[in-house]
Design brief:
115 residues, mainly beta, globular
Length: 115
């Protein structure tokens, strides 16, 4: 069974940091575009960061550029999203994805940035 299993997230104060993890189960990330998305209540799911397996480039949305960092542990088929300088507007459910919108999605993890 192909799964993406997420961990991390939670409640943090503004300016704080969190790290999200996403582990592949039943497949390897090697041949998939890998991305992190988030969805706030009442809003569309938005792509935050994406790793291109063909050229190794990493895309960041303007809203998180310079604050969030995508990384990958190929040996363990795990990807991470390090989130620094968090803001209240970063509060959302975060999802990892492999293979694009029609591909595999993690279960989602809540991130709440609040005093």
């Amino acid at each position: 069974q192909l799964q993406l299993v997420q961990s991390g997230g939670g409640l943090v104060q503004p300016g704080g940091s969190l790290r999200l993890s996403c582990a592949a189960s039943g497949f390897t990330f090697d041949h998939y575009a890998i991305g992190w998305f988030r969805q706030a209540p009442g809003k569309e799911r938005k792509r935050l960061s994406c790793f291109n397996t063909n050229d190794g480039n990493i895309y960041y949305a303007d809203s998180v550029k310079g604050r969030f960092t995508f990384s990958r542990d190929s040996a363990n088929d795990t990807v991470y999203l390090q989130m620094n300088a968090l803001k209240p507007e970063d509060s959302a459910v975060y999802f990892c994805n492999a293979g694009g919108l029609a591909g595999n999605w993690g279960q989602g993890t809540q991130v709440t940035v609040s005093e």
